[in-house]
Amino acid sequence: MIRRFRSLPLRSRLALLVAAAVAFGVAAVSVTCWFIVQGKLYDEVDNNLQAQKGPVQYGSVQRATKNCGQDPKSSSDNPRGRSDYYFQVVQANGTVCAFDGSAGTVKVADSDEDVAKDPKLGEDTFRTGTDSDGNAVRVLTVPLVVTSEVPGGPPSLVQDAALLVAIPLKSTQSTLNDLALLLLLVSGIGVVGAGAAGLAVARAGLRPVDKLTEAVEHVARTEDLSVRIPVEEDSEDEIARLSRSFNAMTSALASSRDLQQQLIADAGHELRTPLTSLRTNIELLTRSEEMGRPIPPADRKALLASVTAQMTELAALIGDLQTLSRSDAGTPADRVQVVALQDTVEAALRRARLRGPELTITADVQPWFVRAEPSALERAIVNILDNAVKFSPDGGTIDVVLKDGELTVRDHGPGIPSDELPHVFDRFWRSPSARALPGSGLGLSIVARTVQQSGGEVSLTPAAGGGTVATIRLPGAPTPPPEAP
Questions:
Q1: 335: which DSSP letter?
Q2: Which member of 1, 20, 331, 404 has the lowest number of beta carbons within 10 Å of its beta carbon?
Q3: Distance CA 349, CA 355 (A)
Q4: Is residue 409 over pLDDT 50?
Q5: From CA 228, how far away is CA 237, in angstroms rounded?
Q6: What residues does 360 pair with on adjacent strands?
Q7: DSSP letters spanning 273-332
Q8: For position 75, what pLDDT does the model report?
Q9: What is the dihedral of CA 377, 381, 383, 388, to 10 degrees?
């Protein structure tokens, strides 16, 4: 049953839940109302019965006891002059003595005999029973008090006998049945109306979800990530938040796909140049061998050196692409650890001094500890220093300072034009003035991704007096964090 319910559409489930909730509430109210009305009607019947009790005439009791066990005669007198009431004396042994003119006889219960055996003046006992014909009656049993044999004398309590007064419940039960039928009809109408209202509300409330579903299905079918769901600016409900999240997700996916396509196009363009040069040189060497025309040793040596350089450039480009793809995928948590940034900078400085022996590299490095992937962080710093070495003039100076988590690398090269600064961290972007130099245009992009994933920021700014200042800021502390126990 639960599985079948879960298989229903959401709007059907909402309508059923609303109908069920309303049905429960209406049923509770209806049952409560019915019992309250029943109690009020029975209280009214009990009050009518109490109005009939009182001292019974001595003569009426004498006539009733002579006719014990006989059917009453409705034409005769009864103690209260009402033929629609039941009047009878119940003896302690259960014998019934009906008054003449009583509406009939009522079946005696144990509680009636208990009152007859132990009468207590003023104590009333109510119950619901049946008469000799099986009709429902409301019964009042009280101790039997009769008038005095002497006119004007005080009434007396009769031992081992009780007075039983009853009234038919046909009218009361008919009223209760009509009320139950009315409440059932009203409840049914209420439940059906609640179900219809719930379905209408569900349709209206889920209309934005339908639009979202259609948009998702459209994206899945056509891969069109330009789809956007209109959202009211001042709306803050769950549907609006879901729509904004969907729009943000499709925007991010579209941007990611554009970046991937751009990366593929740029990578293909960058790979084409070394591959073409490599293919040309290899074909030249192969043709020389096939035709038996050896290339002069000096030219052959130059061709082989060119092949080696192109292969090195190709390997470096592939390595940069792999590094960049790992950066896009994020850094696994198990690779992140506390890194002494000053040691990483010193290691990168040693490599930079080997690549630019003609340069003067000064360093002022103070302790700073960060959380990052060690190899990726070292690669980023090496790329920054490589750029400084590449663009520094012969005999130039590079100043490296690490203080309070801020690493600055200042060179005295030609600098970067202000119109090119916004593009320096783009993939495969290379300054027109630097395209003749070796490189793939991925170094600074790798730096930006690595620093961002470590929670820091990087920037390039023109230096006073010429050159460029590269600044990396990383969160951390001058002392390593305590080890976990």
A1: G
A2: 1
A3: 10
A4: yes
A5: 18
A6: 397
A7: HHHHHHHHHHHHHHHHHHHT-PPPHHHHHHHHHHHHHHHHHHHHHHHHHHHHHHHHH---
A8: 42
A9: 170
CB atoms within 10 A of CB 86: 28
Exposure of 385 by Cβ count < 10 A (0-12 exposed, 13-18 middle, 19+ buried)? buried
**Residues facing 126 on adjacent strands:** 140
Domains and CATH numbers, the chain: 2-37+175-217 (no CATH), 62-168 (3.30.450), 238-327 (1.10.287.130), 332-473 (3.30.565.10)
Q: Helices 443-453 and 297-329 meet at what angle, rounded to 10? A: 20
pLDDT at 355: 80
Cα distances from 242 to residues 210, 219, 225, 230, 322, in angstroms, run 12, 16, 17, 11, 35
Residue 402's pLDDT band (boundaries 50, 70, 90)?
very high
H/E segment holding residue 398: strand 397-403
In angstroms, what CA-CA distances link 133 with 73, 96, 138, 275?
16, 15, 14, 114
Tell me the backbone φ, ψ of residue 472, rounded to 5 degrees: -120, 125
- CB neighbour list of residue 476: distance below 8 Å, 6 or more residues apart: 341, 368, 369, 370, 371, 405
Specify burial of residue 13 (Cβ count, 10 A radius: 0-12, 13-18, 19+). Answer: middle
Torsion of CA 35, 41, 42, 48, to 10 degrees: 170
Contact 403, 364 (CB under 8 A): yes
Q: At what angle do helices 297-329 and 238-291 cross, to 10 degrees?
A: 170
Distance CA 82, CA 98 (A): 14
Q: For residue range 104-139, what is the model confidence (pLDDT) as tens digits?
A: 788 888 888 888 888 765 567 888 888 888 889 999
Q: Say what the pLDDT of residue 471 is.
A: 92
Tokens of 66: 């002579």
234 backbone dihedrals φ, ψ, rounded to 5°? -90, 5
pLDDT at 407 over 90: yes
How far is residue 167's CA from residue 127's CA, in Å, rounded to a whole number? 11
> Could you give the CA distance from residue 257 to residue 249 in angstroms, rounded to a whole number?
12
pLDDT at 485: 46
- Say yes or no to pLDDT of 438 above 70: no
- Give the span between the Cα atoms of 360 and 353, in whole angstroms: 8
